[in-house]
Structure formats: C-alpha cells, structure tokens
Amino acid sequence: MSTDLQWLLIRKYNSFLVKKVPEGPIFSKEPGNLVNLHSHKYSGLANSKTIDIQSSESGLQITTRKSKTSPHAVRSARTTASVRNRSGGRRALGVVASIAKRGYRPDLRAAALGRSSALLAAQKEKKASLPKKVRGKKAAAFFG
Predict the structure, then answer these.
(1) Number of H helices, E strands in the chain
(2) Which of 1, 73, 76, 111 could form a cystine bridge with 34, CB 3.0-4.6 A?
C-alpha cells in the first residue's frame, strides 16, 4: 500500500490525534513523529522511512525503520543507535546528522536535530542557584 493511501486512510481518524483547540494546530503522539505535528511529512505511521528519537535512562535512542522489509519482520525492520548521557550533545547531534547525510530522509534533518537537542537539554541536571545577594538599603538594614 502506498504511503499516500495510508495517509488518506489515517489522517482524520487515529488514536494518536490530539485536538486541544478547535481552530488551532492538530498534534499527534505517534511514534516516529519528530515534531508531534499531524502532517504527512512527519507521520510515523504513514511513511515507510521514519526516524524516532526517544529519551531513555542511559541517554538517547535513535531508531530508524528500514523501508523495504516485510511488515512481519519485527527485529530486522528497525535499527537502533544509542547515545549515552555522558557522551555530550555534539555526539548525539553527529549521529542524527550522519543518518540524514546518508540519504535517509534528509528532509527531517532539522527536525531530528531539534528533537535530539531538546531531549539532551531536558536530561541535563540543573545547577543549584546561588542565594541572592542583598544590596542597597536592604543590606544596611539586614547587617545593621
């Protein structure tokens, strides 16, 4: 079945749709959708080649789906690259960029880089903020 026909069948009714505002954008929670927008370009269900970037305990999991495998081949249909937390953001961005450079959905390069950098930023531990220094009249009153 072609990807266009799949999109026509699932575009109005699927379980991953998120419609918050009647006249706003329609979002999607489907796996393989990098920007979570409900469109044919980013759809993880209707496209034969998808890139899925997920956060895990050990770092980032980057999964790609091979386009010419049988739908019953579960194991060999997907390839997974993992990037550890401590290897840094440049390594993760390099892995994502190399997937796009090889010709695997180069139109999703910017979305994949954005998703991986957002997940890496969310995984970073926040530094403890320093206490505010008291200045001016408050300092004179405080230290008295």
Answers:
(1) 4, 5
(2) 111
